[in-house]
Design brief:
Structural class: mainly alpha
Helix content: 55-70%
Order of helices and strands: HHHH
Strand content: under 5%
Shape: extended
Radius of gyration: 20 Å
Length: 100
């Protein structure tokens, strides 16, 4: 397979942070770009969701501040952890798990 060289400009801090993550995953930036472009072609769509951050979404949708959103998230995580410890959460692995 013939390869070509691509050049792009990105923020230096983003490059450093992404290189650190990729290194932990055993990848380099070139491999990641190839993987992402392959998924783009295979799925004919972006290989990841493009959304507002949760805080922005909740602020625009429900009129709550990012601080209120963060506090709500903390409470929800605590309640979920407590329910999981108490065996009150069901794990859904298949559609049949959703029926009583």
């Amino acid at each position: 397979m013939a390869t070509i060289q691509m050049r792009s400009r990105i923020d230096s801090k983003l490059k450093k942070k992404s290189d650190e993550v990729l290194k932990r995953l055993g990848l380099d930036a070139g491999s990641f770009v190839s993987m992402a472009l392959t998924q783009l072609v295979n799925h004919r769509a972006l290989p990841f969701a493009v959304t507002d951050s949760d805080a922005s979404y909740f602020a625009s949708e429900y009129g709550i501040t990012p601080t209120q959103s963060a506090k709500s998230g903390t409470v929800l995580r605590r309640e979920t952890t407590r329910a999981r410890r108490q065996g009150k959460l069901r794990e859904v692995k298949a559609l049949s798990d959703l029926t009583p």
